Amino acid sequence: GQVNDILATPPIADSGTVKTLGDHTVSFEDVCFSYTEDDTQRALAHVSFTAKPGKLTALVGPSGSGKTTIAQLIPRFWDVQEGRITIGGPDGREIENAILRLSFVFQAVFLFQKSILENIKIGREDASDGEAIAAARAAMCHDFITALPDGYHTVFGKAGTHFSGGEMQRIVIARAI
I want to staple 57 with a disulfide (CB 3.0 to 4.6 A). Which of 51, 89, 115, 154 is the partner? Predict the structure, then answer.
């Protein structure tokens, strides 16, 4: 039922005029968005901000304040009703959909019963071991991984190998990187 409906949904059209991005600055300019067609309950109302590459941008607010909606509008899971979202200058609707890929790391994370190295490489299966280890260093989980008896080859969930929630999140951040 629902899975078939999702698979049958046509992708959101793009003009495809922008095929590469030189800059990855994301700007929300007076963005309004509602999940309902009648626009009676806005998830976002006149939101404006700029997130620059290489800088930390935090979306902080109570449950239901629009943080996840903002994250899902960037790769165009939906289009805004008012305002615009730009990425590197062009409006997101002008950018070819294939290059609007993001990785999300939520509070509830999941690791597979595979080696830590394999869990990290799920983010990009053709990554070399060196690239996966570099991602783990960037996510600040390299030290606790190398302290494990089998290091990166330790299988999550086997023989009592479990991690704290924070350690699991760092591994998933390495996956996203």
Answer: 51
